[in-house]
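Tokens help. Our protein:
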Amino acid sequence: MINIDFVKEVGLSIAIFIVFFIFQAKGVASEKFLTFSVILIAVITALISYHRNEWMLFLVGLLLGIIIEVGTRYLGYQQTWRDASFYGIPYWLPLIWGYGFVVITRLGMFIL
């Protein structure tokens, strides 16, 4: 039996991640399109289901994503991105970090 709460809270977000990464891996979408897509996905997900202070979690993930990705890029531990407009990383990458923080937290809340 399919748990509707799970689909609403976590399943949809994971499915969106998979589709997003297929587009990114195939190179069929531009960096601007992917960035806009992440923003749109985050807004739609928040409209479907929003928990108190998730925007703070998103912001923490975004900032940590910037620090980690840019830092490891300049230290030489990170790959060179084909479309990298933001200090050697794509614009969408820190946004995915923020969204990932929200999705992982939702998964944890659902499991508990």
